[in-house]
Amino acid sequence: MATVEQNGEPGQPAEPAARRTATIAQLRAGSEIEGVFACTRKDRLTARSGSPYLALELRDRSGAIQARAFRDADFLAGRFDRGDLVAVSGRVERFRDELQVELTSIERADAADPASFLPTAYRDLEELDGFLEHLAREVYDPDLRALLDAFLSDAGFRAELRRAPCTRSGHHAYLGGLLEHTVAVGTLCVETCVLHPRLNSDVLICAALLHDVGKLREFELGAEIGLSEAGTLVGHVALGQQMIAKLFQNDDAGVAPLLRHEAGVIALSDAGAHLIYFCDAGFGLHFLAHWVRGNGTFTLQEGVRRLTSDPARKYRIPDRGQIRAGAFADLLLFDPARVGLSGLKRVRDLPGGGARMVREPLGVHGVWVNGVRVHDGRDYAPLERGPGRVLRRYAA
After folding, report:
1. What does the angle CA 11 – CA 16 – CA 18 come to, to the nearest 5 degrees?
2. 396 occurs within a structural domain
């Protein structure tokens, strides 16, 4: 016979009842419970006897209930985290006029759909989808309309938009909230352009419909609406810019002729001006990974040439970019089968603990500047002074 305990103290026994799966609002004292819920609180506490136990809060759309796990607390604690959707079994008891669940098992429910546990939009999503398409048809500029069509013709994008929240706890903080907010802002812009006809309605409406697309990458759905790693690091504004930029450059067949053009130079830099948001350093490693090894647009020899002797020749920098007697020994030792870049990560190594974004090299075994090894593929070499030189002489 099950009993309920509070703060580790035994309570009164409850009468057995048939096991059932129900919403939290339907639970009654004495019923057994087995189902999937959202875990929104997880604390490891100690009873007066000195034994550990877990104090939890379980939620679904109908409400919340406190839960306790007294047996095998540490073992059970390792099977899930706060914010997970969890499969539980146990018994509902009453303690001090409040219902709570005494758990016998709990574990992460990886296959559960967060949409079943999070609040959703009251408005009809099909209707909102129709409004979105109507607003897009109000854009007549061919380039801006093509941009909108590229997003709206993507079935995956449309499905994500219907599911995404707009914020975690502010306005439209529910599934479908982003679509509802986007339609509202777009409608406001259409009406504003009617009142102020000198406004560029194509630019305004297009911007309204795409201004928050980065929020599709900013949030993660679980027991609650949480921030994704990308959302934490860079935020929805930068993520949206990346999505739009990628759309403009997502066709390798269209970009490849630009890269192959002999008048071009393979280069990318903003001199670190936006280092707190992203890191474009390592474009050469990406070039070797994607355009050489990945899709074969360049042979290894031609890819290396386009990164070394070709820019040196076009910028008229003498004795650079070639391995030959008398030239400066600027060298990169890499594994062609592994060369590439890691994902973004944040480090705090600027003055005052300031943060910046970095990427780690992959498949790199050493970097030499003027014959001095400055990096071993894992870290920088401890040098009293750098071996680099200011370029002051250029070929005629």
Report:
1. 135
2. no
Residue 60: what are its φ and ψ, rounded to 5°?
-140, -170
The answer to whether residue 119 sits within a structural domain is no
Asked if the model's pLDDT at residue 12 lies above 60, the reply is: no
Amino acid found at 24:
I
Tell me: do 81 and 167 sit in the same domain: no
- Contact (CB, 8 A) for 123 and 263: no
- Tell me: do 26 and 99 sit in the same domain: yes
Instruction: Give pLDDT tens digits for 139-191.
Output: 999 889 988 998 999 999 999 999 999 998 899 999 999 999 999 999 999 99
**Residue 341 near residue 289 (C-beta atoms within 8 A):** yes
**262 closest CA partner among 292, 298, 290:** 298
Strands of the chain (E only): list them. Answer: 3-6, 9-13, 19-20, 32-46, 52-60, 63-69, 85-95, 98-108, 219-221, 225-227, 331-334, 340-341, 345-350, 354-358, 361-362, 364-369, 372-375
Same domain, 196 and 299: no
Whether residue 20 is found in the same domain as residue 72: yes
Q: Which of 112, 136, 167 is the last residue of a domain?
A: 112
User: Cβ contacts of residue 58 below 8 Å, gap of 6+?
Assistant: 24, 37, 38, 39, 40, 64, 65, 66, 67, 86, 88, 101
The total of structural domains in the chain comes to 3
User: Within 13 Å of residue 322, how many CA atoms lie on the same side as its CB?
Assistant: 11
Q: For residues 37 and 105, state if they share a domain.
A: yes
Q: Is the dihedral of CA 74, 79, 83, 88 positive or negative?
A: negative
HSE-CB of 281 using CA atoms within 13 angstroms: 16
Please report where in the chains the tokens 């009142």 appear, as a residue. 195
- CA dist 267 and 145 (Å) reads 30
Please check whether residue 290 lies inside any domain of the structure.
yes
Residue 128 vs residue 21, higher pLDDT: 128
* Distances, alpha carbon 355 to alpha carbons 104, 275, 276, 379, in Å: 44, 8, 6, 19
Full residue range of the structural domain in which residue 48 is found:
3-112
Q: 140 and 80 in one domain?
A: no
pLDDT at 323: 94
Backbone angles phi, psi at 93, to 5 degrees: -125, 165
Of 246, 272, 298, the domain-final residue: 246
Q: Show Cβ contacts of residue 116 under 8 Å, excluding neighbours closer than 6 positions.
A: 36, 60, 61
Tell me: do 213 and 260 sit in the same domain: no
Contact status, residue 154 vs residue 161, Cβ threshold 8 Å: no
Q: Is residue 118 part of a domain?
A: no
